[in-house]
Amino acid sequence: MKRNLIIAGVACVAALALAGGGAYVYFFSGLRTSPSALGLSATPSPAASSSPSDVAGKWTVTTGSQAEYRVQEQFVGETSKHLAVARTSTISGNLTVSGDSSGYQVSAITFTAVLSDLHSVDSVVGHSVTQRDSFVARQMNLQQFPNATFTATSASVVAADTSQQVSTTVPGKLTIHGVTKDVTATAKAQMTGGKIEIAGSASINMTDYGISPPSVGFTTSDSQVTIGFDIFLTKSA
């Protein structure tokens, strides 16, 4: 009888070990992927040549626009970090362009992204990254603060043909979680299919906005976050 109990105990321990090992492989296999950062369209859609008067005016965000966050997270048992990425396509806003071919001035810049529509687009084999979305929503209190808003008074763009990409830096203010901080975004812009496309990023520390880095039983996030965007605008006035 005692011998049978010992055998049963050994079998039970072995089963638990196998189950634990299986779960470990299932959740932390190392098969992880993250999409490239948002950027300008590789091949802009053709459109008739734009004159300075075509560019000057008010432009409004349209379909195809996206914003994202990118943050490193550390899984238990993994030696390398994983890049978590979530995106939203619910974006609104506008800007005004003035000037001519000698140089353009962009003013009255306002973009708002609905963070409560963020959804993870990376993958970890054996793990549902969508679980992260609900945890992030709670951590950021998105029921009370569903949006992120970037505003800037102005930005200058060096003289360039409207068929070329241009680069600029845009100092402004970013409001997240009810907290507003100064940030500087780096961006590139181009005309594509009669639209202005602007893509770029800004780096923030989530603790500056009163947000603690998310941490659950098997993963912990860094506090440093890259906010990325790829925004399309159509002329409205």
Verbal overview:
With 237 residues, the protein is of the alpha+beta class. The chain has two domains: 30 residues; 205 residues, Lipocalin (Beta Barrel). The chain has three helices and 15 strands. The strands form two sheets. The protein has an eight-stranded antiparallel barrel. It has a two-stranded antiparallel sheet with strand order 1-8. It is elongated and about 55 Å long. The N and C termini lie far apart (89 Å).
Keywords:
eight-stranded antiparallel beta barrel; two-stranded antiparallel sheet; Lipocalin; 237 residues; 3 helices; alpha+beta; 17% helix; 2 domains; disordered N terminus
Low-pLDDT ranges: 1-29
User: What would CATH call the class of the largest domain?
Assistant: Mainly Beta
Based on Cα principal axes, name the global outline: elongated
Structural category: alpha+beta
Helix content bin: 10-25%
What is the count of distinct domains?
2
Alpha carbon gap, first and last residue: 89 Å
CATH architecture title of the largest domain: Beta Barrel
CATH fold group of the largest domain = Lipocalin
**Spatial extent as radius of gyration:** 24 Å
On the 0 to 100 scale, the average pLDDT is 84
DSSP summary: helix tally: 3
Find the count of extended strands (DSSP E, 2+ residues): 15
Question: Quick one: CATH superfamily of the largest domain?
Answer: Lipid/polyisoprenoid-binding, YceI-like
The main β sheet shows up as: 8 strands, antiparallel, barrel
Bin the strand percentage: over 45%
Order of helices and strands: HEHEEEEEEEHEEEEEEE
State the strand order across the main sheet. Answer: 2-5-6-9-10-11-12-15
